[in-house]
Amino acid sequence: MANGPTDNWRAWTAETAREVAAGTLTPECAGDAGLYSESLLRATDAVLEAFEDEVRALQEPYDEVVFGTVERVVLALNAIDEDGRHGGAGFCTEEREQLCEYIDLTLTEHGVDVDASAARRGVARSEITDRWREW
């Protein structure tokens, strides 16, 4: 299974903290280190775990079933992004790209031909989340 985006975000936060502690990065330059609140990370983990479970359970990856799964994970991620309880943290460009890539990789790792499914829907592979995505 591909590394989840939150693994990357936690690693970046930890590396930034190490650099500040070592004096190789000033606290002013580490301003984005608080970008990933623990509540955002936990909520995102829970949504991605549910997505993984759903994809793992796919018996026949028909397009409607696959896109229903994509819709549910995107709508759940929209809710996290809009939730004010995360201290203003949300998904920006970097996070959006990692989330979209993770959705694609998870589907692919479980036997979904994302290119073919997307083409039958009249969208590019990179656009499979666009219909529902607000982040």
What is the helix tally?
A: 5
Low-confidence stretches: none
What helical percentage do the residues reach? 55-70%
Shape descriptor: elongated
Labels describing this entry:
135 residues, mainly alpha, 60% helix, elongated
Polypeptide structure, described:
Helices cover 60% and strands 0% of the residues. The protein has 135 residues and is mainly α. Helix 2 runs antiparallel to helix 3. The protein starts with a helix and ends in a 15-residue tail after the last helix. The model has no long low-confidence stretch (mean pLDDT 90).
Quickly describe the structure.
The chain has 135 residues and is mostly helical. 60% of the residues lie in helices and 0% in strands.
List the helices and strands and how they pair.
Elements: H1 5-22, H2 38-56, H3 63-82, H4 93-109, H5 114-120
